[in-house]
Amino acid sequence: MLGLTGCADPAASAPGPGGDAVTVVSCGQELRFAAPPERVVALDQSSTETLLELGLVDRMVGTANVKTKVAPEYAEDYAKVPVLAPKNATSEQVLAATPDFVVASFKAQYTADRSGTRGELAELGLPSLVSATDCPEQNPADMTPFDLLFSDYEALGRIFGIEERAAALIAEQRAVVTAAAETGAAVSGKPTILWLYSTFNGTPYVAGGIGVPSEMSGLVGAENAFDDVAESWPEVSWERIAERDPDVIVVGDLSERGAPGDSADEKIAMMRAHPAMSQLTAVRENRIIRVPGIEMDPSVRSVNTLGLVAKGMRDLGYAR
C-alpha cells in the first residue's frame, strides 16, 4: 500500500486491470490501495463516527480527539476501538497502532507535533485521507459542503470495497437535505440565522461564510448572519452580533467538552445577561434552536442538525 503525491478531490478511480487496485486523490495526495485497508486509525471524532456508520469497526485499531460522547448509535462499536489519545494523537501513538491507513476530518490533524505530516506518513508507505470538506479549493466550485461530505463516503466506499453501503448512506442523507430544502421553499422573506458555536473567555465564535452552517441556512430558506466573513468560525463580539440583529439563533451545545461557556445553557445565559444581546428580538422571544455543537462541523451527523434547524424554523412559524 503506497502513498503518492498528487492534487485533486477525493473521488476514487475504478479498480485497475487486476480488479483490485483503487486510486483516491485526497486533498493534494494520490493514494493507491492494492487491497482494502485492514488497520485504520481515525484522528478525530468526525472521522471516527463516519467509519463506524459505514460498519468498519472491525478495521479500526485506534481513535483520538473525541470531544464529546459519540452518538448513542455508535457507542457499542466505539467501545471496541482502542483510544490512542483523549486529545490529539502523536505520531508515536499513531505508529504504535501499526495502521495501514489514517483518516481525519481536518488538515490540522496532520502536523509534525500531532500525528505527523502527510508527507512524513507517505514516506513510511502510510496513506492518509483528509475530508474533502476541509479542502474545498481543490474541488469543483459548484460542490456544496454536503456534496463534499458525500464524496468522502463515496471514496471510503471504494477504498474498503463497500460501495453499496456508502451509496445507501448517501441516499439516506440526501433525502434529509431534500426535506430541509422543501421546508426552505415554504419560508417567506429571508430570515437571518446566527450560528453560535462556542465562547472563549466570554468571546463568541460564530459560523462564517465557509462551511456547512452556511449551506444549512440556505437550505432552510434563511441566510447565515455572517456569510460575508470568509472564515469557518470567526471570533466576533457580542456587540457585532447585536448589530446584525439575527432573526434566529442556533446555539451549539458542547457541554460534554467541559470548558467554561461550552454548554448551550451557558451561552444562552450570556446572551440574556449582555446589555445589547438581551434586547434582541431573537433573545427576548426565545427564537433559539439548540443543536449538538459537534454537528456544526461537517460530519456524518450534520444532517441531524439540519433536520433540527428545519424543524425549528417550522416551530418558530417561518415555514408552514
TrEMBL record:
Residues 39-320 form the Fe/B12 periplasmic-binding domain. PROSITE patterns: FE_B12_PBP (PS50983). InterPro entries: ABC_Transporter_SBP, ABC_transptr_periplasmic_BD. It comes from the Bacteria. Pfam families: Peripla_BP_2. Belongs to the bacterial solute-binding protein 8 family. This is ABC transporter substrate-binding protein. It comes from Actinokineospora fastidiosa.
